[in-house]
Structure formats: C-alpha cells, structure tokens
C-alpha cells in the first residue's frame, strides 16, 4: 500500500526516527499533543489542553514524554524571552541582574511545567535507557532501597528516575527524602514522590534547603507526639487548630518542653482538665510578657505570689482597679476554655 499525502496550504515536519520508534508505545493523547505542538509550537498549556479536550496535567505529561525522547525542546517565549533579550544590551552590572531575572524566569517556567500530583510515566525501555546512560542512578536506587528496606518494583524505580530526570533533584536530595520518610514510618515510594513534588512546587530544590525544611518538620512532629501524650490525646490526632497552636509554640515562641509542661500544670490547676486551648492562652500571655524560659516563668509566678501574700486583708485597691488583673485573666480563661 502506498499513501500519498494531500498537501494544501501549510505542512509541518515530524522528527522521523525518534517518533517512529515511539509509535508502538505512544498513547493517543501523546500523539495528539505531538501533532498539535508541531503544527503550532507557540501556546499556553491550559489553552492548548482545552483545545485538545485534555486536562492540563495530561497535556504536560505528554509534552514531557516527547521532550525526554529528544523529539522536542522547550524554550521560553513572550515576557521571559523579552527580558532576556533586553538584558543583553545593558552594561555589565545590569547584565548580571538581567541574568538572574532570566534564571528566575526559567525556574518559574520549569515549575509551571512540573507542578502536578505525580511524575510522568516512562515509555517501555526509556527507564532502562536512562539507567544505562546514568550509572550513578543505579547506585542511587540501590541506596534508596537500602534506606526503605524494600526492593523497588519497575514502577517504583521509574519514580526515583523521574525525581532525578524530570525534577532535576540531586541524588543526595532524593536519599534525604527517603531517610525522612523512614523516620516517619513511611515506606511507600509514592509517599516520597508526593513529598518531592510538594517541596519542588514550594521552591525547595536544593539539598541544604531541604535539610532545613525537614529539620523543622521533624521538630514540630516530635513536639506534637510529646504534647498529645502530655495532654492525654494519644487516642486521637491533633486537629488543624491544635496543630497550628503547637507549631506556634515551637517555631514562633520557641518554647521547650519544660515551659510547655509548666503551662500544662497551670492549665490543670486552674481548670481541672487538660485543655490545649487554655494552655495556648497561658503560653501566649507569657510570650507577650517576654518570658522565654522556665526559670523566667517560675520567677514571674513566684514574684506574683509574693506580692499577693504581702497584700493586707481588706486592703483597698487603688481607685479605678476593682479587680486583680491576673485573677481576672485566669477567670476569663476558665470561662473561655475550662469547659472545652
């Protein structure tokens, strides 16, 4: 059989060798995206996806698949390209600034391309080819398997490859993600994939940035476990409001366990029950008063008690102060939080 194309006004060229090799495994969506972008290579992903009756995620996944095969290259257009061109004609100091802006534009474009819930799937043989071309990735996968304690399936191996290939994350970064997941008792590679995409979308792409972020997360997580046990909440997880309170105690107020324990004691003493909301109000009161350590808190309490004991029975308070402010504060807390 011989086919003769009927050319009319315009034609476009398809990279023959690479496309033909992929035809057996390419999906309908991938072929539709390829033909569409070859016919009209300037577009916005959302508009083009809509024109093809595809979700933007499906469109970008297909586009990335052809990019990995070397069929397409993606370059900046519009404002990003204009900024880069304009910066080239300036003097040296302004040129450096322009280069930084262009780098930001490229990172933004890459984020827009990669931001999604899961990494794209590799066509048959692509993962094996990537491993052959990148010997260090074999070692990376071995290390990740050792960290997680499981042998990876083909799909799980492709996820690790995707983190390195698609998100351009370093092997050290990926291994740190697996180590963090293991600390949390998570052995699923899908869980690590979710973390990788979330941090990537948040702009945490360097090893040091990730290390700092994970240290913060682990610090808050450890505090949550301790506080749940302290307040007798081991049978349930903290709700969002309580999580926000605990995070504030640890990260903003920077209180250690000893101060939190003292707030717990004050809470139970005043209300007869363990209430995170009441303890939060106590800690906020101490924080506003500039009390940062247990020694400062205890000294303040001791001074208050000493002043109370020094008051003579029946002594008149100064005009305009018909109640003790600290007693009023405690009473207000009991009314607000004592029944929670």
Q: What do you see in this structure?
A:
The protein is mostly helical. The chain has three domains: 12-73, Arc Repressor Mutant, subunit A, CATH 1.10.10; 126-205; 219-337, no CATH class. 66% of the residues lie in helices and 0% in strands. It has 17 helices and no strands. Residues 79-93, 105-116, 317-325 and 335-340 have low confidence and may be disordered.
In a few lines, what is going on in this structure?
This protein has 340 residues and is mainly alpha-helical. It contains 17 helices and no strands. Helix 10 (171-183) crosses helix 11 and helix 10 packs parallel to helix 12 (207-230).
| H-E string | HHHHHHHHHHHHHHHHH
Low-confidence stretches: 79-93, 105-116, 317-325, 335-340
- Give the helix level as a range of percent: 55-70%
Number of domains: 3
Largest sheet: none
Structural class: mainly alpha
Global morphology: elongated
Overall radius of gyration: 30 Å
Distance between the termini: 81 Å
- Number of E-state strands: 0
Overall pLDDT score: 79
Query: What is the percentage of strand-forming residues?
Result: under 5%
Counting H and I runs of at least 4 residues, what is the number of helices? Answer: 17
């Amino acid at each position: 059989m011989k086919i003769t194309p009927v050319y009319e006004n315009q034609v476009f060229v398809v990279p023959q060798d690479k496309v033909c090799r992929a035809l057996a495994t390419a999906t309908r969506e991938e072929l539709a995206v390829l033909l569409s972008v070859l016919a009209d290579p300037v577009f916005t992903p959302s508009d083009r996806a809509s024109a093809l009756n595809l979700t933007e995620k499906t469109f970008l996944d297909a586009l990335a698949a052809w990019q990995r095969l070397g069929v397409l290259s993606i370059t900046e257009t519009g404002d990003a390209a204009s900024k880069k061109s304009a910066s080239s004609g300036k003097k040296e100091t302004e040129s450096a600034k322009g280069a930084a802006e262009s780098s930001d534009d490229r990172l933004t474009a890459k984020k827009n391309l990669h931001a999604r819930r899961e990494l794209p799937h590799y066509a048959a043989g692509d993962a094996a080819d990537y491993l052959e071309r990148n010997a260090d990735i074999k070692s990376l996968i071995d290390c990740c398997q050792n960290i997680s304690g499981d042998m990876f399936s083909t799909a799980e191996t492709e996820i690790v490859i995707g983190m390195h290939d698609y998100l351009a994350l370093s092997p050290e970064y990926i291994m740190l993600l697996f180590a963090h997941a293991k600390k949390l008792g998570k052995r699923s590679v899908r869980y690590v994939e979710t973390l990788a995409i979330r941090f990537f979308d948040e702009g945490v792409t360097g090893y040091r940035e990730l290390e700092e972020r994970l240290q913060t997360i682990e610090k808050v997580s450890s505090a949550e476990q301790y506080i749940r046990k302290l307040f007798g909440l081991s049978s349930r997880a903290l709700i969002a409001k309580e999580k926000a309170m605990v995070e504030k105690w640890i990260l903003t107020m920077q209180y250690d366990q000893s101060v939190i324990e003292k707030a717990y004691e004050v809470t139970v003493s005043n209300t007869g029950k363990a209430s995170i909301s009441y303890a939060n109000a106590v800690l906020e009161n101490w924080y506003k008063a500039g009390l940062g350590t247990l020694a400062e808190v205890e000294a303040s309490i001791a001074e208050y008690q000493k002043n109370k004991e020094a008051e003579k029975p029946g002594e008149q308070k100064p005009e305009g102060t018909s109640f003790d402010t600290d007693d009023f504060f405690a009473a207000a807390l009991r009314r607000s939080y004592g029944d929670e």
